[in-house]
Amino acid sequence: MAYKIITDLCNGCAACESECPNHAISHAGKVYTIDASKCVECEGSYDTPMCADLCNTDACVPA
């Protein structure tokens, strides 16, 4: 299962983008999205999904 970003909750802080080991997070302006085909929930890189751990608005959730 991949993660997704709830755009209404995302404040565009960019904390998640640089920590994504698969470069699955991108943005257009301040709208961030997660490419589900690249997201592996950080398996093999971190113990937990970093986007969810770093998100200060709880916008990163399981898809």
Provide structural commentary.
The protein contains 2 helices and 4 strands, in the order E-H-E-E-H-E. The chain has one domain: Alpha-Beta Plaits (2-Layer Sandwich). A hairpin with a 2-residue loop joins strand 2 and strand 3. The model has no long low-confidence stretch (mean pLDDT 96). It is α+β, with helices and mostly antiparallel strands and 63 residues long. The chain is globular and about 30 Å long. Strands 1-4 form a two-stranded antiparallel sheet. The chain has a two-stranded antiparallel sheet with strand order 2-3. The longest helix is centred in the first third of the chain and has 5 residues, at 15-19.
